[in-house]
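Quick note —
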Amino acid sequence: MDKKLIKVRILEKNGDLKHELNFWMQQRNEETLLLNIDTGVWKIDPKYNQLFEETLDTKKMDVFVDTSLFRKLQEDDLLEIAVDDNRDNAFRLLILETSERCNMRCKYCFEDAKTRGANMNTDTAIKAFKKFISLEACGDSICIEFNGGEALLNFEMIKKVVPQMVEGAKSAGKKIKFTIQTNGTLLTREMASFFKKYEFAVGISIDGVGTYNDNRVYCNGAGTFDDIVKGIKLLKEYGIPYSTISVMYELGQYDSIVELLKYTGCKEFRANLITTIGRGENVLDINNGEFKAKEMAREYVIFIKRMLQEKRYYEANTIYYFLGLLLWHPFMCYKEPCGAGVNQLFITSNGDVFLCQECCFIGQGKVGNVNDEKMDLVEEIQNNDWFQKSQGRITSEIEECIDCPWKRFCCTCPCKVYAECRQIEKKSIFCEFNKYLFEELIWLIHNDTEVVMDFLQYNF
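Predicted structure written out below.
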């Protein structure tokens, strides 16, 4: 597979320079991929084979506006200088740190949760909710997520505030939905009945079968797999929609996730790469290069192809990767600038307001406290130093990334980059993962367009 970067100069009939464009080209099986690396617009077409052959020995090419090649490039939108901004800038997600405490001691916990800590009280939760829905930029449809620590350790508070939030959203003319992220080990029938009544979506944290779940342990070091599965079975019994979230840190784990899905009957899940935030650096040794990014990407691509073929389960990140390659960025963490302080806010158990959950656990992005009645939340967000830095972080402008063909798609979390190297204007340690993944998924979209489009119709 030949691949290369070329600079194309678009010239007027008289030879005057119209503009310059940077393209990445790759040839596979008699077809050529042409990617405008500045806009992210791409096309695969055998008609570009000639262009590929003509630039074999050069990194530059002149194209006049009166040629058939110019018309072909124009027809495929590859000559555009910029693409439409389709980002959603409404606040839609409010995450409440329901409890700092956790009954488990996961070895990679990015919150570094402990057995001791504060619970959020009812008053703080309601104040946070009211401030959120009163924001001028608050969306017509919002989601309240109860998180931790382990959120179920403060179930009594959840029971009290949810009915009030339902009424508050109704009065404000907003649609509201609830979700909770839990390890599942504390689920009871009372909880399941409550979640069913208020139409909660439940996220269960579990990393696979066998040894792949060994990082998720109780405080005494005992395993948690059987207890988590008991919680999943209870959710299924009550007909509560649930999904699983797995932290991916080791080769072979994607196969284990497939076995887990079969074992539990789960249909929806998310496979997140491990982060160095919190205790993650204990598992992910960056300096010694133990995380094999490209090899993990290969396994992920094989997994994605299997998922598309079997049509039995749906992985959320795959959907966002595909949409990103189609230049649509609906999800707040898969766009640039990111959605921290734009689409979401995170409230700690004591009422501190952060731009997002990740910001909190790297010690950045605090904008106030919900108990401060004089706080102008919008002003505090706009003036926040981390907000300005993260909103200004654009991959295509980072020195290490300027010539990367995938810079338009690589919406890397600024907080995760900061956790990796204590700088924000750097590339991610998962750079090689993304490069391999984006290249393979573009060809997958082209070769199996109907299958991919059908997959993207699934609504989480």
